[in-house]
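Lay summary. Proteins are chains of building blocks that fold into shapes, and those shapes determine what they do. In this project we predict the shape from the chain. Here is one chain we studied, written as its sequence of building blocks.
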Amino acid sequence: MDNLKEVLAPKTFNKFSHAAVLIWFLICAIFLGIFIEVENAESRFDFRCGGAKSGDVDLVRGKCFVQYQEQYNKYGIPTYGFVVMNFLVIGIVCAMYSLVARSTVDRLSLPSTRNGDPESQSSDQKKETSTGKQLFIAYCCQLSIRIVLGVLFMILQTQLLYPSKFPYTFGCYFNSGTEQPRNLSDASRNSTFHECNNQRAVKKIFWMNAVLAVNGIYVACLLIETVYILARAWKVRSFMENSKFLEIHLDLTNERSHHVLLRLRLHENRVTHFKLLLEPQKQDDVVSLKSHECENRLIKVKLHVEPQKQDDVVSSKPQECENRLTQVELHLKPQKQDVVVSPKPQECAQRLTQVALHIEPQKEDNVVPPKPRDQIESHQELPQPDGRNGHDNVSQRQREPEQPQTSKLQPFIAETKEIIKEDTQNLFELRSPFSAPPGEHAVVTHLTLDQIYTNLVVIPDRATYDFTENREEQLKVYPRSCKEESQLKSLEDLLNDESKKVLVVGRPGIGKTLCCTKLLRDWAFDKVFQATTNARIHFDAAFFLKFRRLNSLNDLSLRELLTQSEHCPSDHLDDEVWKYILEHPEGVLILLDGFDEFKDNANMVVAPPRPKSTEEKMPLQILYQWLVTGKLLKGASILTTTRPTALASIVDLPFDKTFEILGFSTEQIEEYVYKFTGDDKQAGETLWRHISSNMNLLSLCYIPVNSFIMCSSLSQILQLDRSAGVTLPSKLTTIYKIAVKVFYYKHTKEFRDRRLTREHFVSDKLPENVEETFEKLGRVAFEGIKEGKLIIEGKKVREMEDSALFHRLPDRPAGELAYERQFCFIHLTMQEFFASRHLANMSETELRNFVNDNIKDGKWQLVLQFLAGLMEDKDHIPGEIMTDLLPAKTEEKQSAEYNEDWPQNENKMKVTCWPTDDEQDLAVTLSVDCSALVNVIKNVPNISHLDLSLNNINLLGCLEVCKLLKCRKSQLTWLHLRQNQLTDEAAKYLAEAITNNNCQLRALHLLDNNIGDTGTQHFAEAINNNNCQLRWLALSANYITDTGAQHLAEAINNNNSQLSTLNLSHNNITDTGAQHLAEAINNINSQLKTLNLARNDITATGAQHLAEAIHNNCQLHTLNICYNKITDTGAQHLAEAINNKNCQLRVLNLSSSNMTDTGAHHLAEAISNHNCQLRTLYLYNNKITEAGRQNALSLVSKSQSMCALCF
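And here is the predicted shape, written in a compact code that computers can read:
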């Protein structure tokens, strides 16, 4: 590897192309090893040919192998030889280029060469370093050759040397001669046909496609680099010079390369003009410019000079020239004759400067100096000598906004920004609601604004809502798409020169305050609203005022108001700062948050008087109106946030623009969840899977504070459950009980500034006034759902209009010149939760009647689910009410319809099926629904059977079911989970549950899921456990192979196993798996009585293994191997087995087994024997003729056998 690095010198490539070349050689080595193994292993013994006699097998394989090679490798080039040639030739090109270019790079890399030291270089060397293009040409040539070779090898591989696919099956003809038959008729007469299989074909196809893919990717990358280099060379011609090409393209690790390129572009594309317009009296003026100071740029100087004076010197301050274009016009007295322009090196290297020196002859003593930057108004332009303004000369460039230069303003701004950075780093609003007291080592997540802030959907004007009758569509109304064309791209778009008075509307918790804080923090970090050339608006000072903190203030002046800013450095504005604010209001931003919390918002003066002075003291409501109307600080930007409930108070204010924050879209909710969990990606996936799997939770999280509450609650539950070895989800009711309290406390005036502890959120006991409010909300919520109205009239929420749980909608026309107020709950599920609280307070009789009358009404589905969770906390609730809360059928059953292994001598048991066949519209069970279901079943005695088939509970719901299995009060013995998208991970948790001491499960149905060999191994280990009481295990229609069958076979052999029925139909088990299972049932410890291996890949060989097992004293009573390739040979083996007196088989299913009359005859003869104990034999869908059927029936009838033949 070291030798390779030496040949491929890193300095002749840039770091990316050098890494790519090394990876190329690494891939070459890997592919070489793989193809050598494939080619050497592909011998005639990898061919499987049919139709050959046992003695001629080797001969047939050898001849067919030779024919295969001749047909699909015409030129006899082994694949590993092609791979070596492909990779090595291209690698040699890279090495040759590196050797050729190294000497040039070495010369260019010398300090004297790179730095351009004239004392160390001869003139020829300097010329070569500056103008030579050998390095550029060599680099482009090696790229071109590599591209051509890559395309050439791709064509050779696909069009000439090898087929696109090496076939798996191959028809082989051969006879005593060596020629292939000309046609099929000749083949049939003179040749023998053998159908062969090449076992290595699939592997060979895969790796040849991999070689093709690698070639394609490398050619594409090389093309991109070539186009990039040529485009840059066309744009900047000097890029091709050796020194520039080395420093810019090859030396990418050098941080100066970007700046070098920038200077190079300036050198190529821009020229600095100094215009020296001379009067006739003097012809010559001296212009002295050092070439190395001006980076080889052409400078033209023209001056208008009068002969009266001798010398004028023009020099620009460096600080005025940094990174921008400047035009300066000087009107100087015509006193001097010679003008010397000597720009400083740093001025020439950083910018282009146009200086026009116009010396007027009319006045000798009148000097007009330029205004300082801090005295030039933002809208003024400097006059030009010819009467044109600055835009005529700099038409394509914007003038940079002025920077305040007052002595005390800059420290004020800097200190304000530092305070903002510190105060907004760890916000109180982002602290976990579950913080533990000091000393407790509880794991909680406190977030920072930078870590968690996620963009919101913000649209112009107000949003409208159209609630349909379909509940699913109702939930989709809340999260808006983040791809709406009208929405803002960033918070910076809220303000511009045309919209300086802005109103932002949003319901509680939607993120209004956090938006203001984020905007302010970004300004403090110079991310937005900065004085740059492309800024639409910029601010020198920013103030953040919260209305609720101003309620206690009396009359005050504007100056005093600004000192009330959340992040003001002091309680007094310095005179110089205040003067600058008054003189430059366009550079001031004032954020006023929470107008709805202003105590006098309903008493706004319609026409306040004009202010007499800026120091006049007035009530806050008048100051606010003066600011919005521009009577104070005209030109300042004023941004106000409010809830919709207070809009009527500011209807007369002239806002330039109104926006509404709609919250998160689905994509933004996902982004928020992963930001919340940070580096814990597993927790992020768990939380997002849990939220996204339930439309109720997902829709609720469109409100950012609900996303925060949901993530905090679930994260806390996840931390607790992890210690117990279990994960999400938790009961939906528990989540909402916490979420409602956190939301209410955080957004209600009475509580929002209080220090709330963990007990406030997790305790079921509420303050008396809060309980009364919740009862009122419950009545309103219940009546709304009962009447089918999600939009609530204003009169029904009287005295609750300001509740954080309501959202004020646009008023509805109610007649001529009449409007009616409209409200809705912040979310449908919030309304459903409060409705369930109202139901929970009903009497037992009222509740039972309500449940009976409305259990099948879909609009009450989630309400009843919440109710089930709330009822769990109540004592002495009859089990009948609890089971009535299930949107399913719970009834008593006593038949094998639900269990093939129904316990004998047991009384009627309650069987819960959710949903039932005739009530599919009641529920589609999801993971969170399982939580409520499990909590109900735990409290209902005697429920032993649970059918959750055909649902979508997935892993999360499975974990809830596992909790039920481990519950001490649970009596569940039969569980059906067919078609629930369960995987090996779900199988792992189920296996752990059935080994729990409390688990009484005897039958487990897992048909049609996604369980593989790993999951099967978990079940096998569980069956070996002496705590496991499982008798019946159905794993049909999964992804189990011979490996999984082997795991189960080993478990059956164990003396702890109580398994009596095993269903492995519709899997991928072959003769090998059948052999493992046969050995298991032949073991004395096996208690297996029923084995189902239908629809697998078992042939006569597998049937023979099974026949040998049942031939012995095996306890197997039922064997189902239908829909396999048993054939007559396998039937004969099975006939011999059932003919033995040791065989205890009662039922044998051989339907669809490719059996003919011969196989039927063998079986009929066996049944006729008096030793046979078989009672039912299924032979449907075979190739048995009517004569064969009659013959078999005749044999059985003559022997008076008790066995029933089913054709």
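What the prediction tells us: The mean pLDDT is 75.
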